[in-house]
Amino acid sequence: MRMLLIHSDYLEYEVKDKALKNPEPISEEQKKGRLDEVLAVFMSVEKVDETNPDEIVEKAIVEIKDVASQVKADRIFVYPFAHLSSELAKPDVALRVLQKIEERLKEEGFEVKRAPFGYYKAFRLSCKGHPLAELSRTIVPSGEAVSREERNIALEKEEELKSYWYVLTPEGELVEVEKFDFTGHENLRKFANYEISKNRIADREPPHVRLMLEHELVDYEPGSDGGNLRYYPKGRLIKGLLEQYVTEKVIEYGAMEVETPIMYDFEHPALEKYLNRFPARQYVVKSGDKKFFLRFAACFGQFLIKKDATISYRNLPLRMYELTRYSFRREKSGELSGLRRLRAFTMPDMHTVARDLKQAMDEFKKQYKLSMEVLRGVGLTPDDYEVAIRFTEDFWKENRDFIVELAKIIGKPVLIEMWKQRFFYFILKFEFNFVDNLDKAAALSTVQIDVENAERFGITYYNEEGKEEHPLILHCSPSGAIERVMYAILEKQAKLQAKGTKPAFPLWLSPIQARVVPVSEEVMDYALYVAGKLEGARIRVDVDDTGDRLNKKIRKAEKEWIPYVIVVGRNEKEQGTVTVRRRSDGRQVEMQLEDLIKEIRSQVEGFPYRPRPLPLLLSRRPKFRG
């Protein structure tokens, strides 16, 4: 069973039509319903629940009572909601479970209303919005034997794990999240709500989807599995530049680049153990009689390389890197959302071998700063993302000053998730999380200190005495998935657009950095000359040779977020100048072509370059959508 629990000012519904051939019989009075000051419990009864429905009912009652006590609710609205799962129970079983839950809640003293089962319903809900207002729960019958493809042990344990949430200030004050004053930190409040609720379902289309389609960057691929996308030329250019940029930054940091397979044997002893400790949903492929899983990170291949390597203490810290195109996670269909959450994604993945905790923590702090630098290069500052740091209570007691220093480096309060005991393979983890226009969060950069997998995979190094020891391993993605970076860039521009600010890509990522607009056919030769000079200076330029009027050409360039629009007419041709409209400040100036080249080059210096992804002339370009 899956449940989404929302503490609400009210929930009301109205039956619209039958969703099942034989829905639950209802009266006219039951076609509408409302409760105020209520804990709304949206429920999907799943196929696995059929093995022991009574146990599921009792487990559900325990969870609902626990949440109701936390939010001080004495009214419960039980609402059938099939969209939480793709593996639904038979309708008769589901209805019996829901009826029994309603009955048991009444026995516990709650005022209860249940929405009818088997109908399409319109509903309105007003969520209260505090950190405990949105929570999700997954309930599985005990002793149920299902395959790894259906149920991942680590995922279940992660859902059961009890978290304690705090906010840590740069001054070192640790405040329980419900007691923290979020005034001036609205984005952090949204992030805390999202993390604590664990509701990952995308109920609306985020604004970046409209932008990625309008700009012909990325599109859905109906011929593939959900969460596998197609990239048009401009989108491929942006993605390729980001891949190149992050890779260069990591190699500059000191990592050695490798390449490893995308599929691995389910029965490999070290991999099988690791799968049960790393929450992920695998794609499974068969080769003959053997089963393989598609990787969801570069850990497997890099660990196996390190296992076979001879490593000395003199080699440490040893950093190894791969840009995985692609990594795979079989995410739930309801969680797939544009570029934010995918089933096939590109992950820059670095693993660092460290001799001890002191060296590992030193690397952790350096990689924390590296991640800030990488995001700054793509136009994301600490104002654009929120920090989560996760660890056990013992780690906090022993390393408090280190954690506080991380908050000081970022210069603002950070969200803390603390556990009484360690379940995961790591003892410390941070993420930089982007909060989008729908108040959903997505992790970008991350670093983890892994204390288990060196021993599990047989990775050792030789110390000063020539004896073998197991090191610690740091997992680092300094940017997060490349697709997520694109999502964050587009979502940030959607926020700016909503505030009346002109959206724009960072200049080095703009598919077209300058557009030459001739005012008439008679100056086309000069327009091509200007474009040739710019292209020779490694600036992506095109020419609007269409028959549109000048104003329409300029509006078209504005809509495409072209950073520099260069208008050339008879006057510019005679004087050898250009008239430039800058998107960044809206100014129009006449200048020498050499000065324009210097201005653009100064802003893209230090970033990778790729040539124009489309034909020079607009009239030669296909339209990919619509």
UniProtKB/TrEMBL annotation:
Predominant cellular place of this UniProt entry's protein: cytoplasm
Protein residues bound to Zn(2+): C299, H351, H475
EC top class named in words: ligase
Keyword Nuclease: no
Co-factor note (free text): Binds 1 zinc ion per subunit.
Database matches in Pfam families: HGTP_anticodon, tRNA-synt_2b, tRNA-Thr_ED
Recorded catalytic activity of this chain's protein: tRNA(Thr) + L-threonine + ATP = L-threonyl-tRNA(Thr) + AMP + diphosphate + H(+)
A GO biological-process term: threonyl-tRNA aminoacylation
CDD domains documented for this protein: ThrRS_anticodon
Alphabetized SUPFAM superfamilies for the sequence: Class II aaRS ABD-related, Class II aaRS and biotin synthetases
Family to which this protein belongs: Belongs to the class-II aminoacyl-tRNA synthetase family. Archaea-specific ThrRS editing domain subfamily.
Annotated protein name in UniProt: Threonine--tRNA ligase
Species the sequence originates in: Thermococcus celericrescens
Lineage: Archaea, Methanobacteriati, Methanobacteriota, Thermococci, Thermococcales
Gene behind this protein: thrS
